[in-house]
Write a structure and sequence with these properties.
The chain is of the alpha/beta class and about 325 residues long. It has eight helices and 16 strands. Keywords: Glycosyltransferase, Transferase.
Amino acid sequence: MIRKPISIVVVLLHLSTVPAATAGGSDHCDVGSLPDPRTLRPDRLTVLISGYSEHRLPLLRSLTTLYSSLPYVAAVLILWGNPQTPSETLTAALPTSDGAPISLIRHPDRSLNARFLPRAAIRTRAIAVCDDDIDPDPDALAHAFSQWLAHERALIGFFARSHAFDLESKTWIYTVHRDRYSIVLTKLMILRTEYLQRYSCWSALREARELVERERNCEDILMNFVAAMEGGEGPVLVQGKVRDWGDPRNNGTLPSSGSGAVEDEAEIRRVGLSIRRDHWKKRGECIREFHRMLGVMPLRYSYGKVVEGAGEQGLCNKGGKLVYCDNQHY
C-alpha cells in the first residue's frame, strides 16, 4: 500500500482580550467564516489533540495514528502550544495518514483558551478534545461517541470530578465524590462543536477567559460551566479502558518510541499541569471566581447515567502491571 504524505497546515493564532478571539486578522467568532452548522456531519468526530512538550512527541505520533485510523473520525487536528519547537522537529515526529487527514495548527503562545477556538476545519457536529498523554481503547472511544449521540447537549468524558459547597469554609471547592459528579476533564472529552463558539465568543465570559489565561488552568471547568448553561444537563461519565501516561501514580518506563530510544515516563508525568501541589486549591478558586463572575452556579450533578460510580478510568503502570490508577492493591 502506498502511504500518502501527511498534509500539514500551519496556522498562527492570537487570542484577544476583546470578546471575539482573533488570528492573523481572521475573526474566529465571525460565523460567516465558519461552516454552516446545518452542514456539519452528525456521524463523524473531529479530534483535537493539545500538545506542548517535545518529550511527548513519540507518544503524540502513536496517538495521532490511532485516531486517524478510526472509521468514525473525520479529521485529527494537532494544536501545538509550544512556540519554541522547531517546525522540522514537529514535521519529523508526525505520522503519514492512510485514514482521516491530520493537520498541525501552531499557536504563538501557551494559551489554554486556544484549544476551544472555533475552527473552519471542523466539519463535524461533535469534537473530541484530548491531551497528548491519553491513550484510549478504540472500543471505549466508540462507546463514548455513541453516548454523545444519545446525549448531544451534554459533555461526555472518562475522567470525572465534582464541585461542592464546603459548609465549614462556606465556599465552593473542587473535589471527587464516588456517587456523583458535575465536571468531566479535557483529558478526553466529547462535546458539541457549537460550544466552542459559546466558550470563545460569549462576551459574558471575557473575564472568565482572562482568568484562564492568567492562571493557566481551569479551561475545562469553564467549558463545563458553558455546557451546563447552554445545555441544561450534567455531564455523562462513560466506562472504558483509557491509558493515562501523564498520571503521577504511574511508575516504570514507556515502551520504545520506534527509534530505539526508551522514553522516561517520569518526564512525561513531570510536564503535566495536575502534579502541581496547589492544583486542587487553584481549581476550587476557579469555581468560586466563575460563580462570582457569572452570577450563577450552573454545574449539575450526574449520578451514574452510564457507570455506577465516578471512579478513576485511567490506567497506570504499577509493579509492571496496568491497573486502574486508584487501585491500591495490585
